[in-house]
Specification:
The protein is mainly alpha-helical and about 240 residues long. It is built from 9 helices and no strands. The N and C termini lie far apart (about 45 Å).
Length: about 240
Amino acid sequence: MTELLSAEHLGAVAVIAAATAALIAAARLGPGPWTTTAARSLAVVLVGAEVAWWIYLVATRANRAELAYALPFQLCDAAIFVSALALWLRQQLLVEVTYFWGLAGTIQAIITPDLPEHFPTFPFIQYYVAHGGVVAAALLLVVGLRQWPRRHALQWVVSLTLAYTAFVGLLDATTGADYMYLRAKPGSATPLDLLGPWPWYIGWAALVGLALFAILDAPFRVLRRFQPAVRSGAEGRI
């Protein structure tokens, strides 16, 4: 199990942070057609990392239970595909979902990884490429390329998140799986350990998630008061 704040964990976080910062700085300082190529290249990396994970499980003859849990129904897995579409299409709602899911959810998976492998194994590298790529996509689109969330983005993303959680909860109840940890906490230490036993931690986690969404939306609520283009909500690319 990868230890929290171990050298390999901190090293992976540092690489993700440095690469993301460099990409954002380049997009801000030198905008141009190259950003479309960069965004779509990152989209390919994200989808490739997820597909490579499935191939790895089949190639290593993972058991049926492992294959079932590898289906892309964790919120981070869904965020990978949403992020890839947002990077490729630059559609505003996809960008907003990527921003809120990536920074409120996926970044937590980087900070407190549920990862039994160590560097330089493929699962270790794939985990941080996929999760780090989602965070990089969120920040590139919103900060680097300035596709700021619109006025009602928070409400839309909260509604979509609740709908997706309900779908996953039904899937878990039907199949006995534990996607999004709705039936039990992960085996490794995570912030969920601070939120009490099942099912109470689910309600507390929802409140924490809502608070994080509101914090992420707060800078844009302030900006809308001072910049008419943002206040109108007519265009996400500022």
